[in-house]
Structure to design on (664 residues):
């Protein structure tokens, strides 16, 4: 039944202007238009087909990715796409590729850590893709502990070169994306050694492969690290291994914005903090936060549409059964994820602003906001990727058995997404960085330097330690001030409690290690507060469109109250709320679910995803799920023949043998 909208009745229930919500979701009318144009460009081009991806063997999959990535690059040039358009096109192609690391890490590393001269030399080559780069930091033995990397870069004053070397097996670079088969160059992180003395970890531009025949250069061993989790998924990427046997590079290939090595082998520190060597990771962490809302919204879009199509139980007098989206249990699992997708969208927008601000300040040698930028990017990367990865898996369960089919799009989405909890900093390790920032802030309270930015609430510590929740009826939980104070008091009290326990240890590092699980919980509370407060800030903006702001208020309520409900132990244990008030929050939450329900389909339509991008039969726009599932089953290569390959060899002899047993 081509053209029939099986979700039309659902769409009729909508109480807000979906077109305007699309603009809010995109961030601006301009971004919406660019996004819409690029999504359609990709969806209408057969080269970008992806439904066969999970069936392809690794070599075919990889070659296919090369084909798509180079074709995308060709189209970008032919159509003279702007950087914004190119970046949208890349995201709608929806296939991890070496180009991500080239543009997403190699280029930013040179921009952030290279001197003007180095940028002038290397960036034009990289912009034209005349060289292809990767970010080679992690090693077989060390990933989280960057200071523990073993690769060495020893300066040879005789020849004015660095000798890059892998002294042990564990010093082999391991994981860099694009390294395995494609990159010609890498920004390689290594331990700087001058005259026998170590000077910490620095980045070096190292050529890895010949620009003539792509063979590894002398002294370089390079290969792919092998298959990863899931079919299709991240296996489109050639994550690589790399060993150096005394490879020589000119001195001017050390990235020298943070520290310089002079001709006579002396180190000169510029006034830039050493942590800027980690700057590329900060940049990518903020892009990962923005991408979290995309991945979560995709999963939620699929689960929401399918939940409206799917019916199970509840038929009376031969009438239709209940749509599973009408079950309160389904709503209590699905709607918080829908609200989280919106919440992450807005916090991602804000984080982009924060990152731009800190970058501008750094250019003017103002490093004052760097610690907060590090804590926010690390903490929000950790929080949003953990929730998104769990949310994709929950969406799969929300779709019942059919969610487990590759054609639901959810297994591959999960497999592609889940490493985000590990790459660019393991989520626990990153939360511990936030915890350090919190403990430092608490220890400096009363020093006369008031905390600013996202941590400014700590400046009201006395009030936050004493205040009690004033909520008397469920509706009081709709008051933003009540919710904000609850999240602030919880975060402040959890931090102070950790700081008090820490102060009992004579060795603070031992104390930090002993209390690390509690510290992570305090850091999570702080990060959740940031997300809640940025959602409220968004609502203070002028948001046009009938009913749009109202819907966002409902979602903001769902986001904050579901967190309050889920973590009520924290709120109760810190004595900010009473059990009665916790129960009222839950009553209000249930009421909010009822307000989301008629708008649920429109709220996911507002993501404006094409069927191509969603890549899911269960999530298709028209909701015509069953015929499509049936047809897709027949397209599986296993159904090419009625009798499977292997029948003569295995099944027939087996059946024959059983026959003999039966006769005995
Ligand atoms: C086709 C078309 C083309 C289109 C064109 C357009 C296309 C565009 C395409 C765009 C695509 C984009 C998508 C990209 C794809 C992504 C894919 C994913 C790839 C994944 C890559 C990776 O996976 S890549 C490796 C990441 N690997 C880590 O992530 C290690 C974590 N490990 C650490 O990060 C450190 O090891 C750790 C723990 C901090 C301790 O570091 P440590 O031991 O040195 O330091 P301490 O803990 O002692 O801290 C000492 C003091 O430094 C402070 N501090 C620490 N870090 C700081 C920091 N960053 N900034 C500021 N300050 C910092 C701290 O706050 C302390 O401050 P204080 O002293 O004041 O307290
Ligand atoms: C798909 C993918 C792509 C990647 N791409 C790149 C790339 O392009 N370039 C690159 O350089 N790297 C890349 N990486 C590597 C990645 O950055 C690291 O794997 C990541 O930083 C985690 O480090 P690890 O593997 O050493 O984990 P580990 O640190 O060994 O983590 C193991 C466990 O130990 C725990 N742990 C570790 N330290 C602490 C601590 N101090 N306190 C408490 N718990 C701790 C962790 O929480 C985790 O549970 C990629 C990884 C993946 C999976």
């Amino acid at each position: 039944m081509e053209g029939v909208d099986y979700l039309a009745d659902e769409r009729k229930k909508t109480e807000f202007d979906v077109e305007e919500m699309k603009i809010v979701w995109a961030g601006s009318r301009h971004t919406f238009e660019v996004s819409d144009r690029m999504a359609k460009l990709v969806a209408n081009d057969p080269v970008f087909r992806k439904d066969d991806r999970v069936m392809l063997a690794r070599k075919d999959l990889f070659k296919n990715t090369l084909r798509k990535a180079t074709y995308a690059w060709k189209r970008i040039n032919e159509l003279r796409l702007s950087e914004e358009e190119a970046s949208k096109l890349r995201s709608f192609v929806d296939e991890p590729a070496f180009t991500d690391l080239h543009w997403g890490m190699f280029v930013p590393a040179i921009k952030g850590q290279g001197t003007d001269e180095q940028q002038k030399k290397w960036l034009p080559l990289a912009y034209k893709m005349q060289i292809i780069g990767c970010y080679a930091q992690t090693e077989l033995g060390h990933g989280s502990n960057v200071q523990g990397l073993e690769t060495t870069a020893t300066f040879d004053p005789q020849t004015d070169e660095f000798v890059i070397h892998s002294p042990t097996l564990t010093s082999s670079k391991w994981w860099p994306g694009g390294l395995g088969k494609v990159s010609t160059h890498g920004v390689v992180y290594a331990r700087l050694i001058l005259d026998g003395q170590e000077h910490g970890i620095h980045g070096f531009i190292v050529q890895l492969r010949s620009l003539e025949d792509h063979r590894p250069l002398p002294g370089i061993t390079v290969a792919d690290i092998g298959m990863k989790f899931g079919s299709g998924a991240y296996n489109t990427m050639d994550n690589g291994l790399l060993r150096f046997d005394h490879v020589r590079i000119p001195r001017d290939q050390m990235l020298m914005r943070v520290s310089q090595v002079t001709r006579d082998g002396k180190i000169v520190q510029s006034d830039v903090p050493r942590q800027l060597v980690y700057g590329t990771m900060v940049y990518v962490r903020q892009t990962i936060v923005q991408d979290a809302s995309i991945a979560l919204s995709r999963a939620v879009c699929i689960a929401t549409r399918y939940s409206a199509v799917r019916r199970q139980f509840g038929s009376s007098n031969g009438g239709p059964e209940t749509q599973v989206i009408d079950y309160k249990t389904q709503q209590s699992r699905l709607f918080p994820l829908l609200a989280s997708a919106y919440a992450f969208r807005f916090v991602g927008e804000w984080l982009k602003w924060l990152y731009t601000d800190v970058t501008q300040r750094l250019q003017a040698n103002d490093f004052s906001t760097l610690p907060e930028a590090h804590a926010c990017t690390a903490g929000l990367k950790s929080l949003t990727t953990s929730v998104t990865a769990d949310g994709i898996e929950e969406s799969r369960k929300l779709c019942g058995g059919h969610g487990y089919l590759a054609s639901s799009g959810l297994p591959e989405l999960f497999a592609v997404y889940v490493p985000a909890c590990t790459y660019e900093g393991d989520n626990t390790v990153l939360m511990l960085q936030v915890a350090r920032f919190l403990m430092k802030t608490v220890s400096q309270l009363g020093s006369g330097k008031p905390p600013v930015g996202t941590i400014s609430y700590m400046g009201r510590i006395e009030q936050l330690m004493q205040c009690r929740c004033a909520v008397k009826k469920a509706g009081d939980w709709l008051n933003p001030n009540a919710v904000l104070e609850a999240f602030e008091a919880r975060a402040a009290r959890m931090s102070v409690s950790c700081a008090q326990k820490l102060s009992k240890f004579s060795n603070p590092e031992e104390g930090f290690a002993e209390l690390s699980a509690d510290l992570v919980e305090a850091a999570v509370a702080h990060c959740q507060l940031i997300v809640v407060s940025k959602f409220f800030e968004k609502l203070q903006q002028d948001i046009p469109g009938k009913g749009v702001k109202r819907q966002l208020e409902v979602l903001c309520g769902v986001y904050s109250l579901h967190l309050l409900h889920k973590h009520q132990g924290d709120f109760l244990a810190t004595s900010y709320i009473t059990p009665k008030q916790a129960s009222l929050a839950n009553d209000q939450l249930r009421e909010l679910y009822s307000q989301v329900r008629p708008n649920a389909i429109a709220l996911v339509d507002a993501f404006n995803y094409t069927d191509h991008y969603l890549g899911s039969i269960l999530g298709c726009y028209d909701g015509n799920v069953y015929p499509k599932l049936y047809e897709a089953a027949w397209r599986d290569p296993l159904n090419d023949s009625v009798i499977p390959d292997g029948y003569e060899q295995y099944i027939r002899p087996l059946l024959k043998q059983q026959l003999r047993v039966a006769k005995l």
Remarks:
- Residues 107-270 form a domain with the Butyryl-CoA Dehydrogenase, subunit A; domain 2 fold (CATH 2.40.110.10).
- DSSP finds 23 helices and eleven strands in the chain.
- The radius of gyration is 27 Å.
- The chain has a mean pLDDT of 96.
